[in-house]
Structures are given as C-alpha cells and as structure tokens.
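How it folds
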Amino acid sequence: MSKAFILINLKTYSEGAGQRAHSIAGAAEQVAQESGVAIALAPSFMNIHPLSMHYSLPVYAQHVDGAGPGAHTGAITAEALKMAGAQGSLVNHSERRLTLAEIDSSVTALRNAGLTAVVCSNNEATSAAAAALAPAYVAIEPPELIGSGVSVSKANPDIIRRSVEAVRKANPDVQVLTGAGIQSGECVKIALDLGTSGVLLASSVVKAKAPIAVLRDLVSLL
C-alpha cells in the first residue's frame, strides 16, 4: 500500500448524522486532497448513498450480514450496500460482535460483491483467525480503549506488534489497521511505525468542534 489509510466510523453519534455527516465528509475530502492520504468514512446506513453521491471519498458500511438477496427481512446485504454506493464494510466491530461463522459469511458476501472487508478484532489470536478468512484488512481495537481518549498506539503498542505478526503469519496479503483512542498525528505515526497500514477511529473526529483541524493533525506526520 503506497499511502496510509484512515477510516472514520461515524457510528450513530448525533454529531455524525444528517448535515453534520456532510460537513465531516467535506472536511475529510479536503484533507485527503491536501495530504494525499487515503481517507474513508463509515456512516450510518441511511447516509451511505448521499455521501457516496456527493463526495469522492470511499464510503464503507458499519455492518453487513452474510445473507444474500431474498427472504431475509431486516438483513443488510452486500449487494444492497454496493447499490447504495458503498465500497466496503466493517465486520465484527466491538459494538456489533459476530460469531466466527457469521464473520466468514459476511466476508464472503463482501468478496462476492466486489467489496472490501475490514474485520475488527480485539487481540492477536482473533486477528490471526480473522486474517485466515482473507479480508482486505484486520483492524485491531482493544475494546477497553475505544472512546477512552487513550491511544492504543501509546497505551499498548505490544498488542499492535503481536497482531501485525499474527496476521502476517496467517495471511501476508491482509493489511492491518489499528484503532481505539486514536486522536492525533503522533498516534497515527506510531501505528504506522509498528507495521500497520493505517487507523480506524471515530469520536476524536466525529465529536470535534472543528473536524477539519483534527483531520489535518492526524495526517500531519505522514
């Protein structure tokens, strides 16, 4: 990968919905153009289509089910995400945990639809298991640090090192992201120095009074 990847999960924060989602997307698009860093957004489902239509940034879903088209009321299918304009999806986020069989089904569905899978994990063992399913990315996020304001790249760099090693051993084609508490350019730089391809973050951008300032800081050392 030639450049760092920053994936911003808007979750269901009120600050990441409606017009505010457009403001964050516009800021992210501007910073991506300024810096050359690849930035993507994972908004709520109802914002996937409008954001994909109005901005050049890749848009990801926050969750996808393994079900295909058919009698699966309420399911979020990979085919529907693709038609809405998504380029990929998070899978198994700590706030939307799945079984291993469900993760496999979701990753397969995304692959069959030509979409990118980002499988979240919480330690090196689950990272290795996720990598064996051959998603594009495995994102390591210790759940105790999510939203804490304490960066995993500073608080627990060893889990990043071990996860990178475990993923490379299981499947060297899978890239690693890291998340939980990422909030500054220093956090991002440390994560990349530890062998990852980028970061997955949320509240530090979504809840910021000036998201563009935070985004510029995130890419400042790259």
Observations:
- The domain at 5-218 is CATH 3.20.20.70 (TIM Barrel).
- The mean pLDDT is 92.
- The chain has one domain: 5-218.
